[in-house]
Design goal:
The complex is a heterodimer of chains A (about 270) and B (about 425).
Chain A (H helix, E strand, L loop, with lengths): L1 E8 L3 E10 L1 E11 L4 H16 L8 E5 L11 E2 L2 H12 L5 E5 L4 E6 L5 E6 L8 H10 L4 H8 L16 H10 L4 H20 L8 E4 L6 H11 L3 E2 L7 H20 L4
Parallel strand pairs in A: 1-4, 4-5, 6-9, 9-10
Antiparallel strand pairs in A: 1-2, 2-3, 6-7, 7-8
Helix pairs in contact in A: 2-8, 3-5, 3-6, 4-6, 6-7
Chain B lengths: L6 H23 L4 E3 L7 H6 L3 E3 L1 H10 L4 H10 L7 H12 L13 E6 L4 H13 L3 E5 L10 H22 L5 H24 L11 H13 L3 H19 L10 E6 L7 H9 L3 E6 L19 H11 L7 H15 L3 E7 L3 H4 L2 H11 L4 E6 L9 H23 L1
Parallel strand pairs in B: 1-2, 1-3, 3-4, 5-6, 5-7, 7-8
Helix pairs in contact in B: 1-9, 1-10, 3-5, 4-5, 7-12, 8-10, 9-10, 11-16
Chain lengths: ~270, ~425
């Protein structure tokens, strides 16, 4: 049996997944920690927490692949793969019919086109500003004095959504304040916020052909309001796995398994 | 593998120092006279006919950026009223004058004439108007019609030739030096030879592996190409460069020990992070086999040459039709298509320049054309050629890494 791990150091949170492969790969454990200022330590903490949950000594994990912005800072990792390749790989593993991945994380949004074997055919990302990403939602929640997990469900109760003209993460605050001053309800404002991100993401996605099935990954995929807004703007259903948040780490772990198998085939390790 | 450093690198440095020394001499003694000129599609041969030293604001701007000195002059220009979206080359150049900053540390002369060869980039006009006002120098704007069709019309050529003759009269009047037709022909002959040598160098990149990087290494060669094109030193330099790179090709030496990817690059580099940017490609042992940026000064690899038998006419043709900026977008598509097919590239990299809307605006469509019509994987990244504030290293590295990861799997899938 091969045991491998993937660690995804994102801008906001760090995720780790441990896989066992004896036949089909299966997930042994997942762990999630806040990234904070010490990237290397966050990676180590997430990895150790996942090992503990799996009942493994970290030394039993034969290969660790790092991904995410902090991938080069994972000191115990043997290889690095970008989260673009990892999200594609993870999404294809969970939903093999996936041809388009929409990944919205803390600081970026990306759309990836996949081939039938889960290989990346093309990808587009938001430009350097964090407009229309998880950070935009977090700022909106903060202005309204709500917890991040509350805003999605609340947005679905909207009856008259506002038309938000900005997706700027900074200016959204003043936009929301002005709507509040006009007496608009928080649920209507939030629905406007979610639709603004959805529209931006879909226009990004249209730069490469959108082909079903579409899988939504990344931390923002846990937000039901965002899932519904994306489906509405796309006019297509969107698949979301309970492991959406761990998709990068899962993809990295799958690359780690692949590397172990290549090593076995190539006779590098036993 | 250590980056290749040959005689050409030593000689390039020497030539660029000599050029700045001539400008400094001009500033101190008033001789030789200096004239401000743009790189793209220029008429430097005319200046050489008078023994005038060309002064290139773009070269000054990029030299400041590569030395990590561009932000200060950019801020100085913004304090003066330039917007953040204005061309950062302009701001660095104007700001450098305001601060008395030069890349060499020497002085820059007050130009005898600010000669704006307007070819495609309309920012050039405003830039040179400001330079002329700032330095209290006379201004002449050469109006070169944009190339909307495949070839310029005879009327276009005649129109530019008439203006070039007007420039000659103006320079005679300003310097008191009579125009020397033989010297002009000699300058055009030098250009013709340099163009032939440079073109042969570019065709060496068709080799597998390519002996040089036609983006990053080409930039080293572009200094002497622009400053010395119409001079014997240029001919001597490019003879040396061709011999050196031909020898590398004969030995089967590439840019890296083993060349993994071959790419075509569109757009100028982010000069303030030139090293970091190059390293992103070096990690993947990706060699640029062709680049559009290296044709800003002139497109010669497809056969055009200046001709000493028709000096005015070929100078005009060069300005109208044989440089990157005065040509239309469909011609740029065709240029890239030929590079991909004839130079054998695996993918295309587009570097969008934030402060150059004029040349970056259509690059989204260009990406569509390359990926969809040509079926060639294309990476689109953005920062700036001069302004360090637009370069987000982690973001750009992420895109570059993901692009090559996908290319690698793509190549592997084809191989099995």
């Amino acid at each position: 049996m091969l045991i491998a791990a993937g660690v995804d150091v994102g801008s906001t949170q760090t995720k780790a997944v441990i896989l066992a492969k004896d036949g089909e790969p299966r997930i042994l454990a997942r762990a999630l920690v806040d990234t904070g200022a010490n990237v290397s330590r966050a990676a180590e903490q997430a990895f150790h927490a996942a090992c503990q949950k799996a009942g493994l000594d970290p030394r039993e994990v034969e290969m660790v692949v790092g991904t995410g912005y902090g991938r080069y800072r994972i000191v115990f990792g043997q290889a690095q793969v970008t989260e673009i390749s990892c999200h594609a790989r993870g999404a294809h593993f969970i939903f093999p019919q996936t041809r388009t991945v929409i990944d919205i994380g803390g600081q970026d949004a990306k759309v990836i086109r996949l081939g039938p074997r889960g290989e990346v055919r093309d990808f587009v990302m938001n430009d350097k500003c964090a407009a229309g990403t998880g950070r935009f939602l977090a700022n909106a929640a903060e202005v309204l004095g709500l917890a991040l997990e509350e805003i999605g469900p609340l947005s679905l109760r909207a009856t008259d959504p506002v038309k938000l003209t900005t997706v700027c993460t900074v200016f959204v605050e003043s936009d929301i304040l002005s709507y509040l001053a006009q007496g608009r309800r928080p649920e209507d404002i939030l629905r406007g916020v979610h639709l603004a991100i959805a529209r931006r993401t879909v226009s990004l996605a249209r730069r490469i052909p959108i082909e079903p099935a579409i899988t939504f990954t990344g931390g923002v995929a846990r937000n039901i309001g965002m899932v519904k807004a994306l489906e509405e703007v796309l006019g297509l259903p969107v698949q979301v796995s309970p492991d959406a948040h761990f998709m990068g780490a899962l993809g990295a772990a799958l690359f780690a398994v692949e590397k172990l198998e290549q090593n076995v085939e190539g006779g590098i390790s036993s | 593998m250590a980056e290749y450093r040959g005689e050409i690198h030593r000689r390039q440095k020497e030539l660029m120092q000599q050029w700045y020394a001539r400008l400094d001499e001009s500033a101190r003694t008033g001789w030789p006279p200096a004239i401000c000129l743009m790189i793209s599609g220029n008429c430097v041969e005319l200046l050489e006919a008078f023994g005038i030293v060309p002064m290139y604001p773009e070269v000054n701007a990029l030299q400041l950026a590569i030395r990590h000195q561009s932000l200060e002059p950019i801020l100085a220009a913004e304090e003066m009223g330039y917007a953040t979206d204005n061309c950062a080359y302009v701001k660095a150049d104007i700001g450098a004058y305001l601060l008395g900053l030069t890349p060499s540390g020497g002085r820059l002369p007050r130009p005898t004439l600010v000669l704006c060869n307007f070819v495609g980039c309309n920012t050039y006009i405003k830039w040179f108007e400001h330079v002329a006002a700032l330095l209290d120098a006379p201004l002449y704007v050469l109006d070169v019609p944009f190339l909307r069709s495949e070839e310029p019309s005879p009327a276009d050529v005649a129109y530019v030739v008439a203006q070039l003759k007007e420039v000659v009269a103006r320079i005679e009047q300003l310097t008191g030096v009579p125009f020397d037709m033989e010297r002009f022909r000699e300058a055009v002959r030098c250009s013709q030879q340099v163009e032939e040598l440079w073109s042969r160098i570019k065709h060496l990149a068709r080799h597998r592996p390519s002996p040089f990087d036609a983006y990053f290494d080409a930039i080293t060669l572009m200094g002497p190409l622009y400053v010395y094109r119409a001079r014997p030193e240029g001919v001597e330099f490019f003879r040396l460069a061709l011999a050196e790179l031909e020898a590398k090709a004969a030995r089967g030496e590439g840019v890296y020990e083993s060349e993994r990817f071959r790419v075509v690059v569109e757009g100028p580099p982010p000069y303030p992070y030139f090293r970091a940017f190059r390293d992103m490609f070096a990690r993947w042992r990706a060699t640029a086999v062709a680049s559009t940026y290296s044709t800003v000064g002139g497109i010669w690899e497809f056969g055009f040459r200046h001709d000493p038998e028709r000096p005015f006419e070929t100078v005009a043709l060069h300005m109208l039709a044989h440089n990157l900026t005065n040509r239309n977008y469909l011609q740029r598509y065709e240029q890239i298509r030929r590079y991909v097919r004839e130079w054998g590239a695996d993918g295309v990299i587009i570097h969008f320049v934030k402060s150059c809307r004029l040349f970056s605006a259509g690059q989204g469509d260009m990406r569509d054309y390359i990926t969809k019509a040509l079926g060639v994987p294309t990476l689109y990244i953005e920062s700036d050629l001069e302004d360090p504030r637009y370069f987000a290293e982690a973001q750009i590295r992420n895109r570059v890494d993901a692009f090559f990861e996908a290319l690698e799997r793509h190549k592997h899938a084809i191989a099995v």
